[in-house]
Amino acid sequence: MDQFSTIHESLTAVFQVRRFPANITAGESGHDGMTDRRPPGQRSELAVLLWQRALDPQQGTWSLPGGRLRNDEDLDTSARRQLAEKVDVREVDHLEQLSVFSAPDRVPGPRRIASAYLGLVPLTADPQLPSDTRWHPVSALPEMSFDHGTVVQHARTRLAAKLSYTNISFALAPDRFTMSTLREIYCAALGYDVDTTNLQRVLSRRKVITPTGDTATPGRAGGRPASVYRFTDSDLRVTDEFAALRPRI
Amino acid sequence: MDQFSTIHESLTAVFQVRRFPANITAGESGHDGMTDRRPPGQRSELAVLLWQRALDPQQGTWSLPGGRLRNDEDLDTSARRQLAEKVDVREVDHLEQLSVFSAPDRVPGPRRIASAYLGLVPLTADPQLPSDTRWHPVSALPEMSFDHGTVVQHARTRLAAKLSYTNISFALAPDRFTMSTLREIYCAALGYDVDTTNLQRVLSRRKVITPTGDTATPGRAGGRPASVYRFTDSDLRVTDEFAALRPRI
């Protein structure tokens, strides 16, 4: 390779809100005020898909799915192709470029530049995984390969920011959901408690969610039947443009 | 180069709101309702910094500043270094990665992957430019090299989106400004008319701008002295997180 040539790879942080045994995250801060409506002994957590390296370099550490860009594909195509080897990509509802990781010494050997992606899988999906691959709570990552831990933190920060000004949660939620389920998703993705009433009020006012008119069957705890909602749109959009900045129709 | 190796380059769309002779943009839609407080015969436009290629490929077309990543630098460092060759980088108040342009055939010859950046220069800066380099209104681009026109449109879309949910306009505005000047910047950057009163109300409520307590000397048209404002912060932040999504203190 000459002075300027590099290898380009994609790396995708695929996130899903998943239920883990409570002991995995016991004592974690930020969830103490959360009323848990999950089965006893389970907690909802934002999880990331990782595979364990069988060979050196860094044998035994955990990596994000990804790999080298081929001559005949662009990066988005490459990221989806690489994901298909780890998880059924039809279950990835949202995929976006994060940023490029390009420190000269980020991996040993020939220089590799990584385009990092954020991928989101809905709560109800349960993709088949190869034997070297597992979901890990983002709050308790195992020993990560190279700079992959930094990529995960970057992806989580982007997700939390977009939860606050877009409808991106459509890609983490089932098609139809109660506010209790949606709150579970927001609490897990943000890492702190969110009030159900406020969440319902803000998302309804911004037309992010729409009532379906149906109600859910009460759970074991009984109580009133809960309203069932859906997302108004299933494409990413900014949900609160400044009123003053909208073009005149 | 082997099957996987590529050349990586940065390309930066540097934007500034500038005043152009009115005939450059006469008849452009979207500005008809705008009360122009500029000197007669001038209009404010979002402009982008371009240089003209003296040699083939595509001799005579206009390109974004940028160039090859070196072995000893990361992409952000490289983008700033390349800009320094075209414009004093101390005048670039904001620089952020947009996305990666990686279509296999985007340029002739060995494969080049481009990391695109958005750069912003404040209204009052007047950087020295080399002789092959000029500011062009984004609404009337000359013949552009390769996919550089697409990069400019992508950068403009990102800027317009961020104007609606962040304080990014700090990087286009002078340190101290009247609402009339700030409106000039928003109208030019968005490409449509914005009401001064609404703009002042929304930006004040969200604590994006703060009155300095000073007033500006009335212009030739006379009238009441205008209040002078400054930006509350000069680091990028999201200005409207959902109230329901903020962590409890």
Automatic annotation (TrEMBL), chains A, B:
Q: Which GO terms describe its molecular function?
A: hydrolase activity
Matching InterPro entries: NUDIX_hydrolase-like_dom_sf, NUDIX_hydrolase_dom, WH-like_DNA-bd_sf, WH_DNA-bd_sf, WHD_NrtR
Instruction: Give yes or no: UniProt keyword Hydrolase.
Output: yes
Against Gene3D superfamilies, the record matches this protein to: Nucleoside Triphosphate Pyrophosphohydrolase (3.90.79.10), Winged helix-like DNA-binding domain superfamily/Winged helix DNA-binding domain (1.10.10.10)
Entries under CDD domains matching the protein: NUDIX_NadM_like
Upper taxonomic lineage? Bacteria, Bacillati, Actinomycetota, Actinomycetes, Mycobacteriales
**Start and end of every Nudix hydrolase domain?**
17-159
* Keyword terms, alphabetized: Hydrolase
**Name of this protein:** NUDIX hydrolase
Per the record, the domain of life is: Bacteria
